[in-house]
Write a structure and sequence with these properties.
Blueprint: H1 4-11, H2 20-34, H3 42-45, H4 49-60, H5 66-84, E1 94-105, E2 124-133, E3 139-148, H6 158-162, H7 172-176, H8 179-187, E4 191-196, H9 203-211, E5 215-219, E6 225-226, E7 231-232, H10 233-238, E8 244-251, E9 257-269, E10 278-285, H11 287-290, E11 297-302, H12 309-336, H13 347-370, H14 383-396, H15 399-402, H16 410-420, H17 434-460
Parallel strand pairs: 1-4, 4-5
Antiparallel strand pairs: 1-2, 2-3, 5-11, 6-7, 8-9, 9-10, 10-11
Helix pairs in contact: 1-2, 1-5, 1-13, 2-4, 4-13, 5-13, 12-13, 12-17, 14-16, 16-17
């Protein structure tokens, strides 16, 4: 388990902008961002006027691009994985790459025309991000991100877009994000499983995966034709008897969890237009079906082996981790890092800023994910930080907090940081939010800086 500080900082050590001064400046800027309350404005984050000026110059520099910023993170990830190689106790056997798309909306920026989103009057950026997680589904990095500025002249011309070559289409982003895995699997002894939502249900993605020996889990979207049956996918699945009956937690329309009896089916099928057969895992809620009401149903395509109930459930477990990875990342980027409140006068600077904030958002996302693991805190913090955390625990944690966690664990640390940021500890409201964690983490890091400064001061006196 990598300390969340080191994991993020390492990404900044591999920037390659063709200028060593720019590389070093970007590294310092990223370190400042992850050690600050990134919900605040940049003048509050870069308190030194020269550091603030350097950051703005970096964002406006033509040598700096979102692709190069993200590429630095990808190289940093590969460096960490190469360190693991040969260490059987640490080296993961499988990683998961989750992809998803969100919008960065800037409706009030009249002088900054970025492009349309869903309506012609929108103003914003399409942000497609691939987030790599370890075998415990804890985020460890962003190997790929693509930002798309939609040309307003293309709005309403969907028929013309269909005539374009696949590489010129916006959907190419789903396949493009898999290139990092192709190279990484060749140099590292690690399997990378790609997970995509319904937008990833396309023949090109299946073919690319088979050609490059990449595994995938993709939620079915289209009512495809089955090659061997000349039958449509959904009618075929609904007519199959379940191979197992399970009770599983589902979410209602408002996102509230509930337990439901479900039928589980799995098989190998041949899709028309796809050269290789794929495996399908299908889940259908029975409670509502028996009452004649609308029934929840899920179908997932995968290249992974599925020959038992346990393996079928595992496929659903892999996919459902996408929500707490991608959806939480988007919340962290927008709420925790205030992405949509940033003000730049050019699309170049704005997209560079989004890329830098994405690396910063991953830092916060990783911190919160670690709270769900029963990891000892000394795997996340250095010796001095562990001592400070113990002091802060005595000062901030309440008796109710100690009923929710074991002392000196990752969750214990997150509850401390949350309390330091103003979290009230109301159990029903769950873990501290993004803004609260930023405030608490900033407070903690400033105290740590003060401890180090005072120690050096008294030693030199």
């Amino acid at each position: 388990m990598e300390p969340f500080d080191r994991m993020t900082k390492l990404q900044g050590q591999f920037f390659e902008f063709g200028d060593e001064r720019l590389d070093h400046r970007a590294e310092l800027c990223l370190e400042t961002l992850i050690n600050s309350n990134c919900n605040e404005g940049f003048p509050s984050i870069f308190t030194d006027q020269y550091a603030l000026k350097a950051f703005y110059r970096l964002m406006n520099n033509k040598k700096v691009t979102p692709g190069k910023i993200t590429a630095g993170g990808g190289l940093g990830l590969r460096a960490v994985l190469q360190e693991y190689e040969g260490e059987s106790s640490e080296s993961p056997e499988v990683l998961y790459l989750y992809q998803d798309t969100t919008f960065g909306s800037f409706p009030a920026r009249n002088k900054l025309d970025l492009g349309y989103l869903e309506n012609p009057t929108d103003n914003g950026v399409v942000i497609h991000t691939a987030i790599l997680t370890d075998e415990f589904f804890t985020p460890i990095g962003i190997p790929f991100q693509k930002q798309i500025l939609r040309d307003r002249a293309d709005y309403g011309k969907s028929k013309e877009r269909k005539k374009r070559p696949f590489k010129e289409k916006e959907t190419f982003k789903w396949v493009e994000s898999m290139d990092w895995s192709v190279h990484s699997q060749k140099v590292l002894n690690i399997k990378i499983i790609h997970v995509a939502d319904r937008e990833g249900d396309m023949n090109e993605l299946f073919e690319y995966s088979f050609e490059n020996q990449l595994d995938f889990v993709i939620r079915a979207r289209h009512d495809r034709v089955l090659f061997q049956e000349e039958e449509k996918l959904w009618s075929y699945l609904r007519n199959q008897p379940g191979k197992a009956i399970i009770t599983r937690q589902l979410l209602d329309k408002n996102g509230r969890p509930y337990m439901a009896k479900c039928a589980l089916y799995w098989d190998s099928i041949q899709l028309k237009g796809v050269s290789n057969s794929v495996r399908i895992v299908y889940l259908r809620q029975l409670d509502n079906l028996e009452k004649g009401e609308d029934s929840t149903e899920w179908a997932l395509f995968t290249s992974l082996p599925v020959s038992s109930e346990e393996e079928a459930i595992k496929i659903f477990d892999i996919y459902t981790k996408r929500w707490r990875t991608c959806e939480d990342f988007h919340k962290c980027l927008k709420s925790g890092c205030s992405m949509e409140k940033r003000q730049f006068d050019s699309s170049h600077a704005m997209t560079n800023c989004i890329a830098m904030l994405s690396l910063t958002a991953l830092h916060l996302l990783r911190m919160r994910h670690l709270a769900t693991l029963d990891e000892p805190v000394d795997k996340l913090l250095n010796e001095q930080e562990c001592k400070l955390a113990q002091i802060m625990a005595d000062k901030y944690l309440k008796p109710i907090d100690l009923t929710q966690c074991k002392p000196n664990t990752a969750l214990w640390l997150v509850l401390i940081i949350g309390r330091m940021g103003g979290h009230q500890g109301i159990k029903q409201k769950g873990l501290p939010g993004w803004k609260t964690l930023w405030l608490g983490w900033t407070h903690f890091k400033k105290l740590m800086d003060g401890v180090i400064l005072s120690k050096n001061f008294f030693l030199s006196s």
